[in-house]
Amino acid sequence: MKRILLMRHAKSSWDSPLLDDHSRGLNSRGKNDAPLMAEQIKQKGILPEIVYSSDSIRTKETLKLVTSVLPIAKTQFISKLYLASESEIYDVIKQIDNQFDTALIIAHNPGITEAFYYLANVHIDNVPTSGVGCLTFDVNHFSEIRPRTGRLEYFIYPNQF
Question: CA 2 to CA 22: how far, in whole Å?
């Protein structure tokens, strides 16, 4: 069995209008929400062993806050995940090292929202910032994952807590 946690980056700041989108960091709400959601992931008991993250500043900052709560063995920044579509996220998932059973993907909308439908036939209108969901696949290798075959274990977001 393989599991994928899909997470949208925490709330970003728009305080510096001269910054390009890739360079925007988190605002104070985002800095509070990311560790809150990491605690919730921990309580759910399905812990990621590896993280694949977009290389934007806001996803890097989200990852740092998540790993301050969750012990994660390995992290990898992938530029392809910056504003990735659901199929680009799927391409990354299929390449995950099979020594791990649970991976966390931190990326952006609309790709993260659309990935829930693409991977598990789950319709979510909009994954809010710091929202995270866990999908389970009855496969032995990440490369065996096929669209719409996942099962949603949970979907949570900061306003629930």
Answer: 30
